[in-house]
Each structure stands twice: as C-alpha cells, then as structure tokens.
Amino acid sequence: GPAHLFRLAGKCFSFVESTYKYEFCPFHNVTQHEQTFRWNAYSGILGIWHEWEIENNTFVGMWMREGDSCETKSRQTKVHLVCGKSNKLAYVSEPSTCVYSLTFETPLVCHPHSLLVYPTLTEALQRKWDEAEQLLYDELITDQGYKKILKEIFEEAGLLKATEEKEVENKKISLEFETVEKCNKEYKQLSKEIKKLQDLLSQHGIAYKGISGE
Asked: Which ranges carry the DMAP1-binding domain (predicted)?
C-alpha cells in the first residue's frame, strides 16, 4: 500500500464507547476489550490485517479479517481512512452481526493523491494496467474483463489476497492443454489416480461400473 502510511505500523489507537474499548493497530489487528468488572468480560480480536479495499484507483479501506469466531463465521472489520488533524480512531459501529466498521482519522490521507493505487505499483504492473486501459478503450475487452485484470494486478502486488475461487479457476484452466505431450502426461496421471480409486473401492467391496477410457 502507500509507503507514507507505513509510519503507522507498530502504533495502536484506541477508542472507548460505553463499556467497550476498541484498539486499532494498523497493518496488525483490531481488538475489543470489555471495560467491566464482570468475571467473564469479553476481550477478543475483531480482525487481523488482511487486504485493502480498492475502488476507482483509490485505497478506500483496510480489511481486518479472520478474527475470533462468531457463530458460524469469523469476526471482521473494515477500517475507513479519512482526513483528520491528528491520528485517531474516531468512530466504531457494527453494521451487521460480527462485521465491524471503524473510522480512522489521519493527516496522512489529506492530500488528494495520498490514497491512489497506481503510484504504489511496480513499473511492470503499471504497464499491465496501461495495457488493460488501452484494451478497454479499443473495446477489445469488456468492463468485466477489465475489472478481472485489475483484480489480478492488485493480487500480484499483494494489495488483495487471492481468493479460493481463483484457485478453482486455475484448476479449470489447467485442463486446457497447450501440447499433446502435456495432455498425454496428464491422461496417464489421471489413469493412475482412477486405478488407485478403483482399488480402494474394491477393497471396501463397493462395485464400480466404469467404461474403460472414460
């Protein structure tokens, strides 16, 4: 992300609301501590630094994910960065169950270009973005295709975490072979795996009806 924000790393900022104290440590985590004398006062992690949220070439927020478990999911927090006179945690809310929203004020984002994504990229990734812009302008790719390229650029830059869907997508792609040799190699590998699975089924006395070469 933006290099000038790295000076926030290693620092923590707190905000107290009713009986809860929230603490935001940029590029690290967000925690919540119940300020009561109850024997089981809650103290936990609302999210660990994960990735940026990017819109229109701008870093609009920091996602802290994989916090403490909450019912069937993990707690997560989106931190909005807004211009302010000093570094401080200004506002906390919980827009939906176990998803928190923090507003962090800092003079580091007051310059109109302070949160632009493009300048933080390497030259190679900037070139890739320029090419995508040209392809979109020439109508050689759709808006959806353009967004997909941008997502790949941001993932490559480490600004976004690659999603599991991407892994599934890669597996699908790997089934299209560039050469016959590669296809044969993959076919032999799959045949071995099928043989193993057939043996496993017969070991457990499960009938297997399959057409050879299927």
From this structure: 117-214
